[in-house]
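User: Could you check the structure of this?
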Amino acid sequence: MTDLLTLVAEPWADWGLIDSGNGLKLERYGPVRVVRPDPQAMWAPAHGDWDPDASFIPGSDEEGGGRWVHHRAVERSWPLSRGAVRFHASLTPFRHLAFFPDMAPQWDWMRDRVQQGPGDAEIMNLFGYTGVGTLLLSEAGARMVHVDASKKSVDAGKDNAALSGLSDRPIRWMVDDAAKFTAREVRRGRRYDGILLDPPKFGRGPTGEVWRLEEHLAPLLADCRKLLDENSRFLVLTVYAVRMSALAIGELLRQLTADLGGRVEAGEMAVREEARGLLLPTAIFARWSRD
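Assistant: Sure, the predicted structure tokens are below.
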């Protein structure tokens, strides 16, 4: 049976959800305060004097288009850190700031499993974006394979590795379609100690491959399962598509990993607001572990 959990990202020195309400959220990213839309912030805000440095104004495109309005000058990018890992934040055209802070509890959970097991674990990060999760796992001792279809994102990951002093760590930076790369790894007879995947609702590969979450997630997860064995430690799936259920992806993962034993957990991811301590939901997840 799948256990339903809520994983909460707590504020840290370089990030926090300051306040939320009326369909908006106020966050701090180092010295920069931003307002972004969030339809799940249906309540009233704690305070009315937000005074951000920049606000994201959504367009009519529900896939995430829009623009940033600057209320004060904001650097093109600026450094942040989580533990020993440093990385760049920026105001991207996709409304986020080049990393996803709600992933923090997942990062910590995976780091624990890398550090508690035998050394030299090999982990694959699919849809790895700018590499913050990759670098946190690398810093914990893992050998990493980082896959993203965007060369710009992979280059940003390499820049973050340099900023963190981790350029010499064993990380394979791959500009590739996640599904095609995973299928090739299966054909090569490869195996991994852990897999992290954070697929988008819709996307395109480097040569025009089309990704649709509802259509392609199950086959990709089936291939990921083929890369796990009796010594593997975990698989983590996070999904930001609101039309899916944690129960559904939890059951999918439970069936795929039934022969491995271990445990499947699923539930919601959320961030804790600093003003009142309330939880703002962000995503759903399912994960398997050897525990």
